[in-house]
Amino acid sequence: MSRLDLLRRRSLRYVVLNVMGFVAICMILAVPFFFMSSKTLGDDPSAVSNANAVSKAIVVASVEEDNISWLDEHFSDWNINRFIVNNASAELTVPKNKGREAMVYLTYVINTYDNLPDVMVFIHSSRYQWHNDDPLYGNHHCSTSQHWIADMSSDGIPMLKNLQLPYIISQGYANLRCVWTLGWLSKLKLNEESNSDPEEVKSKPTQNAYPQAFQELFPGEPVPPAVGVACCAQFAVTREKIRERSLGEYQRYRGWLLDTPLEDNVSGRVLEYAWHIIFGKPHVHCSNAKDCYCNTFGLCNLECEGEERCGERWPYPPSSTLPQGWPTVGWDMESRDQDVLENLRNAAIASAQGAMKV
Q1: Residues forming beta bridges with residue 83, ordered by sequence position
Q2: Is the alpha carbon torsion for 144, 147, 151, 157 positive or negative?
Q3: Which of 71, 45, 63 is nearest to 101 (CA)?
Q4: How many C-beta atoms lie closer than 10 Å to residue 35's C-beta?
Q5: Predicted pLDDT at 156
Q6: Which residues, 6 or more positions from 279, have their beta carbon under 8 angstroms from its beta carbon?
Q7: Residue 266 to residue 118: CA distance in whole angstroms
């Protein structure tokens, strides 16, 4: 073998060894990035930009006669968990029909604590509810605003369709109601003077019961002077936010609900005024309405006067119970055909556009 051939072979061997070494180093350096990319949304929320990659569930508090087909039809990409509180044989039910939606919410968290999805929405079963924070009519898509809209029907579809998952993920918890009317403006005043007034005690049973309930729910924490949050116990929360508290704490909350002698509506209302505290918010927690509509629902540039509401975005309803047959039956029991509803929809769109800065 000539000296030239020997040099050539040595050079080739040197190149091959260097290439193999480079490849090995790259593989070693890539391992951490592989595991980082394999994390779930909950491990690194900022790493996930595509909402379709998020595992998400809707937890529904219902009774057997409720119709939740609207959820199955419009939210097929969500895992629907319907709890039927008045049927002990239902696939998803509660240990006792008590505390209204609170028993459902707590039972879901307890049962799935080790297998929670990335994001959960906890809601009531009816599509149309007086407290849903969306006053426009219809389940049509408005191409001008690029948002679902609905009118005084307080339609749950646009409320959930507009929900901004990246914001929910960044915050961990968000109430599904932005307007302060009810809940915050009528916040619970827990000082001794308020709870020693016989008229206050009689007219405000939740306020009267709350101090003792707070001590039992949050042992060791001082009772705050006031508690306030936008009504009405519908919210979105992430797995990580739920797991900031132990499974045992949620079991204690449900145990309190099962054992308390408080009437059903009062015990449920106590938890309504406690969810935001459970999920780490201040005792009195109401976001600026303008910011809330923009961040939570993507409805930005609304003209708002003050912090608590944006015009007639949520008009105070004549009753907390919608007429049977709503929305084709109006508040005065008048029949409203599709032409009437379309006119209402068009008027609502015009009003909404007028309430937004151009």
Answers
A1: 61
A2: positive
A3: 63
A4: 10
A5: 81
A6: 172, 173, 235, 237, 241, 242, 244
A7: 31
**What is the per-residue pLDDT for 159?**
83
| Amino acid letter, residue 49 | S
Closest CA to 178 of 154, 198, 147, 206: 154
Query: What one-letter code names the amino acid at 32?
Result: P
Ranges 86-100, 133-147, 180-194, 260-274: which has the least confidence: 133-147
Query: Residue 278 is encoded by which pair of tokens?
Result: 């459970």
Asked if the model's pLDDT at residue 183 lies above 90, the reply is: no
Please say whether the beta carbons of 216 and 241 come within 8 A: no
The three-point CA angle 184-185-187 to 5° equals 55
Three-state SS letters, 260-325: CCCCHHHHHHHHHCCHHHHCCCCCEECCCHHHHHHHHHCCCCECCCCCCCCCCCCCCCCCCCCCCC
pTM for the full predicted model = 0.73
Q: What mean pLDDT is reported for the chain?
A: 76
Q: Interhelix angle for 264-272 vs 247-259, to 10°?
A: 150
Q: In whole angstroms, what is the distance from residue 204 CA to residue 195 CA?
A: 9
Token pair for 45 = 């929320």
Rg value, the chain, Cα: 27
Q: Using CA atoms, how far apart are residues 349 and 137, in angstroms rounded to an integer? A: 9
Q: Is 293 exposed, middle or buried (0-12, 13-18, 19+ CB in 10 A)?
A: buried
CA distances (Å), origin 117, targets 48, 54, 107, 304: 14, 8, 15, 35
Q: Give the integer Cα–Cα distance in Å for 143 and 79.
A: 28
Kindly report the number of other CB atoms within 10 A of residue 275's CB atom.
21
Q: Is a pLDDT exceeding 80 seen at residue 5?
A: no
Helix and strand tally (H, E) in the chain? 14, 10
In the chain, % of residues over pLDDT 90: 46
Q: What integer pLDDT is reported at residue 339 of this predicted model?
A: 73
Is residue 215 pLDDT above 90, yes or no? yes
